[in-house]
Design brief:
By secondary structure, this protein is α+β, with helices and mostly antiparallel strands. Helices cover about 25% and strands about 20% of the residues. The protein has 3 domains: about 140 residues, no CATH class; about 150 residues, DNA primase, PRIM domain (Alpha-Beta Complex), CATH 3.90.920; about 90 residues, no CATH class. Strand 1 and strand 2 form a beta hairpin. Helix 1 runs antiparallel to helix 3, helix 4 crosses helix 5 and helix 5 packs across helix 7.
Length: about 450
């Protein structure tokens, strides 16, 4: 009888008078470039705990859980788990759907270690405090580059965002998203509703678009965007963004890094990782350390929104799961609107990288491709790498493709022979196309 392997013992951490169990401490969360276990990630968050807690303290937290590691598929959990320490605080939130949920609130290092043990390597706080859940204390400017936008162009937009915030009496606090974009937060007095804060964000986005029409856009529909999209809907109720010091599920364990404005013109997202951030934090502290003392007013932005409305600019589309809002136009993409001319769907620039019954062999082929094409690989977003489980005659196999939409056309690699190229269905599919082969069967 084959003995059942023992589960690795949990590590118990004593944190400010409380004990937190880290289960499966040796489980690899990152294995392709950085090699990090769950315990490594808990220790990372403890090393920068004052910075991480500053972004989530006294805020309801949505749990984004990577229970299969950073290379697996995460899921969101709004409700606090029933198995939780009695000392962990919760708060009840109401959502646009009419439902409510009891969400976790993390106030100290023990709570931080607890949620990281659940697989929450990204921290997703709501922009409200627990004592005033209907009035945000944060305006969130989300800079989301469309495919092909250079990082240098996004930094130029960020600098203009800073200037406009200062014009309306707000102070911006920038951070890398850790993937392709940037967040700029501004503390506000908690006097305005979510609807009003979103209205202010929309007016802000439209003003940046007017100032930088070739680089910035406020258009919600992807078919209308160009340059850097300022996602005003991140300020709608129930929307969250990953806070500073969150770890992103990229092979190098990149971190959402808070920045001083002097760093923005030269910053590179890849410079900030789990391995580099603790040393940076020890050397310079938290660049966002003064954010709570810099709250301001939305009045000037709401005045700008009023001027836009007077000139015929009404509300813009809301996220699809929200009910239709007063003043909102038709919530349908222009190309799908009644009477719109139908355009053929653009073909995505896909290249096949690997075919193999062995998923790990296919992933190794992806890393070899990146090694041959380091410059194009630098532009790839997480969702540009497509890892598909394909159904064969008797089993599944893995196909890896890369969408080159984010890579400038001048440096896009051409289709090469996949490596490896072991598609187990190729022979029988070829026979199915060959009339002679079908007759012989």
């Amino acid at each position: 009888m084959t003995p059942v392997p023992k589960e690795p013992e949990a590590v118990v951490l004593a944190l400010e008078g409380r004990e937190v169990r880290v289960t499966h401490p040796d489980k690899l969360y990152f294995s392709r470039q950085a090699r990090l276990t769950k315990l490594d990630l808990v220790r990372y968050f403890l090393s920068i705990a004052p910075g991480a807690l500053a972004g989530i303290h006294d805020r309801p937290l949505v749990l984004k859980r990577f229970v299969d590691g950073a290379e697996g598929t995460p899921f969101y959990q709004k409700r606090a788990p029933s198995a939780r320490p009695e000392w962990l605080r919760t708060v009840t939130l109401a959502f646009p759907s009419g439902r409510t949920a009891e969400e976790i609130v993390v106030d100290d290092v023990a709570g931080l270690a607890f949620v990281v043990n659940l697989g929450c390597i990204e921290l997703h706080p709501h922009p409200v405090r627990t004592g005033n859940p209907d009035h945000p204390d944060e305006l969130r400017i989300d800079l989301d580059p469309t495919p092909g936008v250079a990082w240098a162009d996004l930094r130029r937009v960020a600098v203009e965002v800073r200037a406009l915030l200062e014009e309306v009496g707000l102070r911006g606090w920038p951070k890398t998203r850790g993937s392709r974009g940037m967040h700029i937060y501004a503390r506000i007095w908690p006097r305005w509703t979510f609807t009003e804060v979103r209205r202010a964000a929309l007016a802000f986005s439209r003003e940046i678009e007017r100032r930088m029409p070739h680089l910035a856009t406020s258009k919600w529909w992807k078919e209308e965007r160009r340059g850097v999209f300022l996602d005003y809907n991140q300020n709608a109720k129930d929307r969250t963004t990953c806070s500073a010091y969150s770890v992103r599920p990229l092979p190098d364990a990149r971190v959402s890094a808070p920045l001083a404005w002097e760093e923005v013109p030269e910053c590179e997202p890849a410079d900030f990782t789990v391995s580099t951030m603790p040393g940076r934090f020890a050397a310079i502290g938290d660049p966002h350390g003064g954010i709570d003392a810099a709250a301001g007013s939305l009045e000037k932005l709401l005045e700008l929104a009023g001027r836009d409305q007077a000139h015929g600019l009404g509300d813009a589309p809301w996220p699809p799961h929200f009910r239709k809002m007063e003043g909102e136009g038709v919530r349908v993409a222009p190309s799908r609107a009644k009477g719109a001319a139908r355009k053929p769907r653009a073909k995505m620039p896909l290249v096949v990288i690997a075919n193999s019954p062995d998923k790990e062999a296919a992933l190794a082929g992806l890393e070899r491709w990146k090694g041959r094409h380091p410059e194009p690989a630098r532009y790839l977003a997480v969702d540009d790498v497509l890892v598909d489980s394909m159904r064969g005659r008797f089993s599944t196999w893995t196909r890896i493709r890369v969408n080159l939409r984010s890579v400038p056309e001048a440096i896009r690699p051409v289709q090469e022979a996949p490596d490896p190229d072991d598609d187990p269905t190729r022979e029988w599919r070829a026979q199915g196309r060959d009339p002679k082969a079908r007759k012989q069967r």
